[in-house]
Design goal:
Blueprint lengths: L2 H6 L2 H37 L19 E2 L7 E2 L7 H8 L13 H8 L1
Antiparallel strand pairs: 1-2
């Protein structure tokens, strides 16, 4: 269509043309979206490295606490993860980590390690 043809069309003809264009664009967008979703499914399928029948990871055994707050014996720490605030405060106050160890009888140590 020439540039001058647009100016000569009636309002009804322009609306009909608008409807045709939006219909074609809608079909093309739907087709493109379907293609992209199919590609995404393929990518997600290959990115999943673990097979469907793989066993779940076994749960870790509970970890016994290793350190105890002398001011509040209910506050303990296993020595794993982020240090609790009470431990940091004790270390800043001049205590050593060995000072905060929980004393265990030799029978408990043998049972845990054996």
């Amino acid at each position: 269509m020439e540039k001058g043809d647009w100016a000569n069309l009636t309002t009804a003809e322009l609306w009909r043309l608008y409807d045709e264009v939006t219909t074609v664009l809608s079909r093309r967008m739907t087709a493109e979206k379907a293609k992209l979703e199919e590609r995404l499914r393929k990518i997600e399928g290959t990115a999943d490295s673990s097979p469907k029948g793989e066993r779940p990871r076994r749960p870790y055994p509970p970890v016994l606490p290793k350190y105890q707050n002398p001011k509040n014996p209910s506050e303990t720490w296993s020595g794993r993860g982020k240090q609790p605030r009470w431990l940091k405060a004790q270390l800043r106050a001049g205590k050593k980590l060995n000072d905060l160890l929980i004393n265990r009888s030799s029978a408990q140590r043998r049972r845990r390690t054996g």
